[in-house]
Structure formats: structure tokens, C-alpha cells
Amino acid sequence: MKSRILLLLCLLAMSLQAEEHSMVPTKSGMFEVGGFSLYLECYENDKPKLILEQGFGRFGSDGVWLPNIERLKNDFSVCLYDRSGLGKSEAGPVPLTVNDAADRLHTLLQTAGVTPPYYFAGGSYASNIITAYNHKYNDEVLGAVFIAPSPFGYFFTMGTRWPEDFEPKNDELARYYQFEQSVKNPMFKRAPEKIDHMQSYEQLKDAQDFGNKPLIVVLSKPSTERYDPPFVPDDIAATMDTLFDEAETNFKALSKNAVVVYSESEKHHLHIADRDLVVKSIQSLLD
After folding, report:
1. In the chain, what are the domains?
2. What is the C-alpha separation between 49 and 114, in angstroms, rounded?
């Protein structure tokens, strides 16, 4: 009897899950972008086009955006995709830069017949790719929402804030130091994407300008704790803390029409943790 009840509960849970994600894309599949193919999924209508970009190592086909798309589809024609080597997409040449990622997205949208202009939204590292896309294809971008973005120069700071002659005093600090130094090696084995962060930083330095386009930056609830664990020397930790302390000012400087809002959630993936705020922020692009 107990096993039958458990089975029924499992079937009910699966049914509810299927109902929650019952949307059927109007377009989905693999599209060639120059020797390899990327996966694209769209929920199209006659509304303005919204392209959803993902954080570092994340991919659009994982389904976590679907509850948000359900609420956005009355206002936007929505597309999302998997970057090369992630999710359903094929791996492309590596290493690559943020400009390469923007070019691949541009080719993907053209090949799939998703014509500009576009609004963009995306979490974490997505802000870098959106910024690169805006710089390279300025006329195609109407506005953007950055969701818990990393401050510009985050990876560059990780790799360069340590003195050249730095010698860790214990194993714990050594592991931390070696991990941060790994950002200098785009082919680092544990990195989910083989992005050259140092070269990408140079490419983005001249791209920090959205003109007068609407730009909404949704940040996690501020924390009073420093970024680094206690064993990191204070002078080195101060570099990253300064980067985060100045982030709001720098985000506001990206556009004459920039707005920064804060979530009540301290979590990083706010498109999951604070769906209401993220959806409302994206909808407000149209105001």
C-alpha cells in the first residue's frame, strides 16, 4: 500500500512538473554558425524580441527560465540558446573571447531568422557578452537587463591582484591563489568554458557605453561581509572589495538611462531566486 502511494505521488509530481513547463517553443533546433552548430529555442509572437543570455557555464536549455518566459511572453517574443560546448550546443574552436561569443550569437540569430532589433537580459557573466554585443552591433540593441552581474574587470582582478613574487604561507591560501591564477589560462581544465578572460577584458574596456538605451541592473541584497575568506591578506582582499564597492556607480555610468535596483535575496541567480523582480525589471524596459 505504501509503495502504491509513493508511486502515485511520484506520478503526480511528474504531472505537475510537466504542466508547469508545458510551453511549446515556436522554433527550436541546431543552427550552423561556422563549422559547428548552436542550439536555439524561441517562443515567438509579434511582440518586441528579447534574447536571454546565460551566466558563465550555464545554458538556456536547462529550463530554469521557463517560468519567467511564461510571464514574459505576453510582452516579448523570447529566444534563448546554449553557448558552444554547453547544453545541447556543439563545441566550437577554443579558446575564445567575449567578442567571439557575441559574434557567434549574432550569426546564430541571423541563421535562425531572428531579425533585430533586440532587448537583452541575462545573469552574471551574461552582462559581458551583452556589452560586447552592444558594442559590436550597436544598432541591433534596444536595451538590456543585467541580473546580478559581476563587476567589470572581475576575472581580470582575480588574475592580477596578487604580487608577482607572492608566496602562499599555507596550503589553504595556496589552493585559493592557484585557483584565481587559473583565470590567466583559458584552457584551465576545470573551467566550463574556455574563455580568454584577460583578452576579453581588453576588448570590453572600450565597450562600456550603452548611450541612452534603457539599462536596468538588478543586484543581489548587499552584504557587509568582505568578498574573500579570512585567510586572504587584507591588502589583496581590499582590491576585490573596492571593485564591488564601486560597481553600482560604474553600472550607472554605462547609460544615461541606467537604473540600479536591489533584490531582497542574497543569492546570485536571481532569475531563479527572485523571479518577480527579474520579470518586472525586464517588462519595465518597455516603459
Report:
1. 23-152+198-286 (3.40.50.1820)
2. 8
User: How far apart are alpha carbons 275 and 287 in whole angstroms?
Assistant: 19
- Rounded to whole angstroms, the Cα distance separating 278 from 236 reads 33
CB 90, CB 30: distance < 8 Å: yes
Strand order in the sheet with 258-262: 27-32, 37-43, 77-81, 49-53, 118-123, 141-147, 215-219, 258-262
If you average pLDDT over every residue of the chain, what do you get?
93
Annotate 183-217 with DSSP letters as a single string: GG-TT-TT-SS-B-HHHHHHHHHT----TTS-EEE
pLDDT at residue 275 greater than cutoff 90: yes
Is residue 122 within 8 A of residue 147, CB to CB? The reply is yes
Rg (CA), the chain: 20
Q: What's the pTM? A: 0.91
**Using one digit for the tens of pLDDT, what is the confidence trace for 196-216?**
999 999 999 999 999 999 999
- What is the crossing angle of helices 126-136 and 197-205, to 10°? 50
pLDDT digits (tens, 9 = 90+) for 217-268: 999 999 989 999 999 999 999 999 999 999 999 999 999 999 999 999 999 9
